[in-house]
Structure formats: structure tokens, C-alpha cells
Amino acid sequence: MTVSSGPVQITGYAAHAKGADLVPFTYDAPALGADDVHIEISHCGVCHSDIHTLDEGWGPTAYPCIVGHEIVGTVQAIGEHVTHLAVGDRVGVGAQCGACSRCSTCLHGKDNLCGHGVFTYNATHPSGRVAYGGYAQAVRVPGDYAFKLPADLPSDVAAPLLCAGVTVFAPLKRHMFPGARVGVVGIGGLGHLAVQFAKALGASEVVGLSTSDRKAKDAAALGATKFVVLNSPEAFAANSNTLDIILCTASHHDMPWDAYVNLLDAEGKFIVVGLPEDSIKINLASVIFRQRSIVGSLIGAKNEIVDMLDFAAKHKVRPWIETMPMTEVNTAIARLRKGDVTYRFVLKNE
């Protein structure tokens, strides 16, 4: 397949209003920049961030909006400055597709924190070009944010790793120590990967934390050594001071945050990767009197994505997925809204 490096039209599925169904939408993509690549998309994961954006839960959305930031496809054209990729390479693109490369965070290998970073959708490139996501036939992005995939990571499996995978892997890799006791709040699209990564990274205990026992068997199959149902003050009290690290993938603003923090032992870390749409309330006594920390983490830097992909391939960390045709995107969105997925939808262009 030959793709022009000049201007092209790309068709995807876009929402034109808050909460609206996604419909076919064609946009004009400008000529390929010297640092850019053109990727024909084979697969795209469906992330709950897509819902937050479609519903304006995190702030205004610029419609029409094509979401999707767990993109896998094949490079079909490259800009003249791109040397690490070649036409025909199988690559992945995650939730970020640009950074300034000049600020202190970028220069220290933390480009995910760049104040001028560009997200893969509902954003604008420095040139003024709108960033459209992966519910589409193709995408054009800076080559630095297209990551060559390990040969033994199938494309459908690789897709959720580009966002969900690195979102949980990066903070665990930063904060875990050998033998750590790790709890995971929410055994869902992110949490089921967090359990696998924590085990592979050497946790002595991996504890699934949930409000019901519905996913207890799944958690055990994923590698959890224990599953705790936290449905009462007594249940929280019985498990207080038992964990070194908690990775919270849940995003409900009205969770009993103090009770969850109190599950940590002294100097434990509560790592937040799920972003509530509203402010939360927490009593800092639960932090101060046991010298605990509340830590935020945003996706992962480029080097962390590369590390995660290699680690997942080597240790056989695999998302549990259900693959659907890209044409059935609205079915996938509707089911995700209801929580009817085990554990990640992946859309496929056919």
C-alpha cells in the first residue's frame, strides 16, 4: 500500500455533541511533517477516558471529536527526519502524541509531564492542526510517539497496553520495592493489568480491593494472592495498616478516601491513576499520623512506554479483551457505559 506524504483525507467515527453517537466523519489531514508518520490503523482500544471526553466529564470537548488513544497499526509513510521507523513497521500510539522536548521535564525524561504536551485527541498540535484519535482508518502523529511493537505482542493485545498498560506499569515501576505488599483498587480495564504487572515486578502480595466479590475469581486467575471485599467500616478496619502501596484505578469522587488510605501501613503510598470528575474530600490526619503519601501519576513517558512493552512481552502480561469491528463502535461505547466488558474492548478495522 502506498500513501501520499501530501495532504490526505482520513475517515473516522466522531461525536458532534456531548453524549452523541459516533458517526462517520472525514477530515483533511495536512501534508506529512518532516518528523511525522502516517499510520494505517488496524486496532484501537476503548478506554474510559474516551467516555469522559465524549461526555465532557473532564472539561470542554472540541467537537467534532474522534477519540481513541490505544492505537496499533502499520507505518505507511514517514517524514524525512524520521530514522527510527520504516514503512511497514508495526507500531503503537498511546494517549500522548507530542511534547516540546525542551523544558526541564522533557530533558529529564518526563515528557508526559510537559506543560506543552499534546494529547492524542481533543487537543491541538503546535502547528494548529487538530489532534484526532484512533477510532479511524488512519492517523498522522509525530514519529517520536509511535512505538515499534515487540514481535510477540499481537496487535489486538498490544492496543490496551498503550494507555491502560503504561498508566499502571509506570507508577508501579517507580514506587515498588522488592517484596512490597500491593493493593489494587478496582479490578477493571486498568486494574486487571495492574495485578499482573505488580506480580511480575516482584510484589510479595497482590491484593484485589473491591466493594463486592464479583471479580474475586478473575483476580485470582490474574495473579492476585488475596481478594478483599470492602463493603463496610468493619471490613476497612480489619484490613487497615496491611499494605505498602495501593494503586487506585477507581474514579468515583464519593469513595471513602480516608478509609482506603488507612489500609496503608506506615509510610505507605496511595497512587492515584483514576481521575474523578469532581473534587474529593480527605482528612489529612490519615496521611500525616502514619507518614503516608498520596501520589499522582499521568500515563507514562516515552522511555516508560518502551520499557512497559518489552516487559509485557517478556513476562506475558496480557489484557483480557473482547474484539469488535470498528463499525460497531457505538455498541462498544454503550456496553462500556454499563460496565459490560471483561476487561477491555478492542476495535478492529476489517
UniProtKB/TrEMBL annotation:
Every copy of the Enoyl reductase (ER) domain together lies at 19-347
Q: Which UniProt keywords apply?
A: Metal-binding, Oxidoreductase, Zinc
State if Zinc is listed as a keyword: yes
The cross-references to Pfam families, in alphabetical order and at most eight, read:
ADH_N, ADH_zinc_N
Q: Which cofactor does it need?
A: Zn(2+)
Q: Where does the source fall among the domains of life?
A: Eukaryota
Entries under InterPro entries matching the protein? ADH-like_C, ADH-like_N, ADH_Zn_CS, CAD-like, ER, GroES-like_sf, NAD(P)-bd_dom_sf
Q: Which GO terms describe its molecular function?
A: oxidoreductase activity, acting on the CH-OH group of donors, NAD or NADP as acceptor; zinc ion binding
Instruction: Specify whether Zinc is a keyword of the entry.
Output: yes
PANTHER family recorded:
ALDEHYDE REDUCTASE (PTHR42683)
Which family does this protein fall into?
Belongs to the zinc-containing alcohol dehydrogenase family.
Q: What is this protein called?
A: Putative mannitol dehydrogenase
Provide the species name. Answer: Catenaria anguillulae PL171
